[in-house]
Amino acid sequence: MAEIYDIVIIGGGAAGFTAGIYAARDRCQALLLERVAAGGQVLNCEHIENYPGFPDGVAGYTLGPLLQQQAVQLGLGVRLADVEAVRLEEDLKVLQTGDGDIRTRALIIATGSSFTPLGVPGEEAFLGRGVSHCAACDGAMFMAQPVAVIGGGDAALDEALYLTQYASQVTIVHRRDTLRACRLLQERAQANQKLTFRWNTVVRAIAGEDVVQRLHVEEVRTGAQSTLDVAGVFPYLGLTPNTLFLNGLVPLNARGQILTDLWMRTAVPGVLAAGDVRGDSARQLIAAAGDGATAALAAIRYLRTGQWRDGDAEAL
Ligand SMILES: Cc1cc2nc3c(=O)[nH]c(=O)nc-3n(C[C@H](O)[C@H](O)[C@H](O)COP(=O)(O)OP(=O)(O)OC[C@H]3O[C@@H](n4cnc5c(N)ncnc54)[C@H](O)[C@@H]3O)c2cc1C
Prior knowledge:
Elements: E1 4-10, H1 14-25, E2 30-34, H2 60-73, E3 77-80, E4 85-89, E5 92-97, E6 100-109, E7 113-115, H3 135-138, E8 146-150, H4 154-163, E9 169-173, H5 183-191, E10 195-198, E11 201-208, E12 212-219, E13 225-229, E14 232-235, E15 239-241, E16 271-273, H6 285-305
Parallel strand pairs: 1-2, 1-6, 2-3, 6-16, 8-9, 8-14, 9-10
Antiparallel strand pairs: 4-5, 5-6, 7-15, 11-12, 12-13
Helix pairs in contact: 1-2, 1-6, 4-5
Bound molecules: flavin-adenine dinucleotide.
């Protein structure tokens, strides 16, 4: 039978690599599986200014590879693989991937979340031809052209501010008349001449010939329909947890996020969850990293003692 790992981590974001750092330092046989690239959502963050230790901020595309480098230097194995399903075989967790099954005693699920789609006509058809979720990757393509950002949270404002470097005009389309974003970002947005708001407005369709040319929008209180000429559209409506592949392995909350206790333990012995994928996560980098550390310590304790929920944190 193929090798059995002590700890396998699914997801190479801040939560996963932090868990990997702790697992590797404890000399566990540890493996991290990532389906796209090291960093996860970090790669969508142009400039991170709230992660401790970087007084001048840090670009996401710098931090992502550094997370991997640190974990690998300490001995973590990293493999490019999409985990399609997980099943239990007595005490072992068996992960199904395109390259075969992987068995582990403890499993840390750190699969984060994906952007919630707008769910309107044109969104899929124009992906990569004007529709983007990554201002840092695609912003420069819209030099001197108008773009729209959809949403009212931190990510939406962060990305809208970034886009003002390139675009002629950035319109934030928001379905409410107040923003969820932190005050600092709101102040910056209001002070930026290139930013305008369409309040109480939702997108009904994205349209154009070969590329995006306009949005069809609706004012939600009056139902008034209008169009907005844009070359790019960046939806930041929120995030959907990446838990579908688990197919009932662990209990989820109503939003599809994994339920854990404060030590990141799920209801299934040896299965933990960390970062944006779990309920009650602050959905911030530092919180994801903290979850990853906690999950790894709890997994190590489980491997050493065989105890799961019996016994409290002091035993760690
Ligand atoms: C635009 C934007 C800006 C942000 N700005 C900030 C900021 O300034 N400061 C801050 O603190 N936070 C910010 N955040 C939030 C922060 O990025 C997240 O909280 C954090 O990155 C979550 O880390 P994670 O490890 O939990 O998940 P993720 O970073 O989402 O990583 C999960 C990883 O799991 C992988 N994966 C998923 N499913 C599978 C599978 N089945 N098999 C294998 N791999 C899988 C994914 O490919 C991904 O790489 C921002 C988020 C966005 C979207």
